[in-house]
Amino acid sequence: MLNAAQPRIHGEPLTELPHDLYIPPDALEVYLEAFEGPLDLLLYLIRRHNLDVLDIPMAQLTRQYMDYVEKMRAGQLELAADYLLMSALLIEIKSRMLLPKPAHIEQEDDPRAELVRRLLEYESMKLAAQKLDALPQVGRELLVAQAYYQHIPQQQMPGVSLDELLVAWRAVLERASRYQHHKVSRAELSVREHMTLILRRLKNDRLVEFSALFDVSEGIPKLVAYFLALLELAREGLVRFTQQAAFSPIYVQAVEVF
Amino acid sequence: MGDSMTEPQTIQSFKNVLEAALLTSPEPLSLEDMGRLFEGSVARTTLRMLLDELKADWSERTLELVQVASGWRFQAREQYAPYLSRLAPDKQQRYSRATMETLAIIAYRQPVTRGDIEDVRGVAVNPSVIRTLHERGWIDVVGHRETPGRPALYATTKTFLDDLNLRSLDELPPLDELAQQEIPLAL
Known about the structure:
- The complex is a heterodimer of chains A (about 260) and B (about 190).
- By secondary structure, chain A is mainly alpha-helical.
- Helix content of chain A is about 45%, strand content about 5%.
- Chain A has a 3-stranded antiparallel beta sheet with strand order 3-5-4. A two-stranded antiparallel sheet of chain A has the order 1-2.
- In chain A, α1 packs across α4 (about 115-135) and α6 crosses α7.
- With about 190 residues, chain B is an alpha+beta fold.
- A two-stranded antiparallel ribbon of chain B has the order 1-2. In chain B, strands 3-4 form a two-stranded antiparallel ribbon.
- The chains are: A mainly alpha (about 260), B alpha+beta (about 190).
- At the A-B interface, α1 and α4 of A face β2, α5 and α6 of B.
């Protein structure tokens, strides 16, 4: 396991771990990327070696930390920045502790206080994250019940009054009057035949605007036959008239027979 | 429509309507929602009483009626989860440590900025972590801190509480404050 990054001291390969180094051999196998950052690594070192977090031996911790960071630098340069910043902080704290305290200052803040506060806050959040992850979660341990419910829209197609139908009919007649030819013919106008014509038309188009059913150029008798056929179809329940709002176009559709 | 339906007359029929609504709703139903079922004619206290009864009615069944942050819902008892999850082989992955730690900081220290999160974790916040939590509907931006850059303040949502079966933030697991209490003030 150690052959990849064989440590050297004064150019000599280090074959045995020095006894004063606190990193046990199996720790070297820990994937370095498993750490979530410098605080996580520091906490690991502190907890691993049972160091007192409230009285951190800075020399020891800094040495162990630097050892890990060196290994990390070899592999993941992009991670290094946060870790290097922490190295600098550790060394700074260590050096401040080495400075002799001026006698006239009664109580100076411990240089480690801020680091300890951050370590404990991070550890608290790290443990909280584990607890949150252990909570049952919807989609994982919790499955929300949902019975199927087919919402059937109750909205009805608006009905059409006879008056409105008449108004529409008059409009058709009026347009037809412009096409009137004074030709007398004996067209055999069967209402039944027109009923079939309309149904066939509705079979293709399903929804036809009322006025579009009439070809005004065919003359009034023909139109009358169509209109009677439509009324007859409606009476027999074979077609349905719908209209979205008053005076809007009236639509004719065949009633589906299943 | 109004003519053909009769308003419930008995306690049982009120409970039946509530039960049908709760079972078919994709989201937890709030008291307001449930009040609308009866066009406001049932008082909130009555609704609570009916819900308590309904909960008791289902106590021996495979589903349980629970209250979460945004209301009431039916869910399968936890003991059935291992079986039910076999139906969905692509079951939810666990979130990374980075994501869970970020979530914990937002949940316990909200509202927080990215900078706050970075201070606690000691590393830069990966934008994808924030995005993941946002897309899950667990966090959102509740404001901006009046400091240079006006950083966004993140907080957890009702959906977060719902999904963790919690009614409020008070029900989050308590923090391990032990070590912190030990810090002498003079330190």
